[in-house]
Amino acid sequence: MSRLICLIMLSLGLVQIAAADENDHDRISDYLTQKFGVARAKAEQISDAVQSAAAKYSLPPALLLAIISIESRFKEKAKGPRGATGLMQVVPAAHRGLLRNVKDLTEPGANIEAGSAILHGYMQSAGGDLNQALKSYGGSLAYAQKVSMRAGTFAPVVARPDDGPSSAAQQAACDAHATDDCPAPASGARSFYIPSANAAAGPASLGLSAAAPASAP
Fold it and tell me: What is the DSSP string of 86-112?
């Protein structure tokens, strides 16, 4: 009997987690549609890709959303200098090894996966220093500061409703500065922490190197 009760409680817990994840998905999609005019289906695709990459590479979803908003304003076919392509403005010439199996960089899932892998590689090379990683990604400390500030505007969007305003504000500051006063991450990649060496593939296995051009995400 007690085993049956445990199984029921476990099932209920899994249902609650799934419902919470669905709420996160809806909240991000709604925001992208209302704030940036992204079509609903595309907003859902971007939301899924952001949350998947955030979990895989131990990056805050708010950080990835901030980078996308700055680089392309959520336009998946955006083009920039040196062939920068897509949502996160990935430069194929700078990351041929990483992109050898990518057929279409304008596809949101492929672009966000690639951009997140590049950023994670830069973080590994910088010993977990987020500002230095963002500097390598965007080419300047001013870019790093801009992304960190923009991440604060996305923090309430990706925060759970039961986190409360103060928790969301505190997490935004942690995402931006990664201070020692930040709380430990509560669930997955929702909050920022320095990735461990085995959290995901390092720069070498990703086809990245410290010599890659700093201004070429």
Answer: TTTTB-GGG-TTTTTT-S-TTSHHHHH
In a domain, 197, yes or no: yes
83 is in which domain, residue-wise? Answer: 2-206
Q: What is the CATH number of the domain that holds 186?
A: 1.10.530
Q: Is residue 217 part of a domain?
A: no
Does residue 216 form part of some domain?
A: no
What whole-number distance in Å separates Cα of residue 92 and Cα of residue 72? 16
Q: Does residue 42 lie in a domain region?
A: yes
Burial class of residue 84 (count of CB atoms within 10 Å of its CB; 0-12, 13-18, 19+): buried
Token pair of 186, please? 């509560």
Side chain identity, residue 51? Q
By CB atoms closer than 10 A (0-12, 13-18, 19+), residue 92 is middle
In tens digits, the chain (217 residues) has pLDDT values of 555 444 444 443 443 333 344 555 689 999 999 999 999 999 999 999 999 999 999 999 999 999 999 999 999 999 999 999 999 999 999 998 889 889 999 999 999 999 999 999 999 999 999 999 999 999 999 999 999 999 999 999 998 655 544 444 444 445 444 444 454 433 333 333 333 333 444 333 333 333 344 445 6
What pTM does this model have? 0.70
Count structural domains, the chain.
1
